[in-house]
Amino acid sequence: MSIATQGGGYKLPSMKVGPETYGLPVAPKSSVQPELVLSHQTVDDLVKSRITPDTLFITDEYNYPQLKALGARVEKVADTTPEAILKILNLPDYPRMHYIVGVGGCAALDSAKAAAVGKECSVIPTVLSTNCITKNRSVIHDGENAFSYQTATPSQVVVSLEDLSHQPESI
Q: What is the model's pLDDT at position 10?
């Protein structure tokens, strides 16, 4: 099945494909809403304040060098594929990680929420472009199909007003 659309985006599959196809954990349904924290700290300072031995940061290629330089335990994701999520879930130190923090855009945040099922999770968006920052669902795609499924609800969405105020008006 091809996913090519005129807009170039993914289309939802006509056949049943979901997290169970890949062995991804599914969170129980929840009506809990994350706490929105508007901070005047930079993303660097927000990350530094959350670094502990049992915290795993998940970020994108753009933010990876910055988080690594801060000394965070960090994994880089390029996209939200089942393979990327399973790679995180199979890290040798993943079982001892109690806190998952997503930093970046939707790929990083959706991957963090998918990897945080059964763990505490928060997100630090670096782009405010979609609703992935607050939803307890992640969109995963495998190259042919895209599916949305129930993942961890972030306990907090922490927005750096300092960094966002310095972004260009358009990209």
A: 45
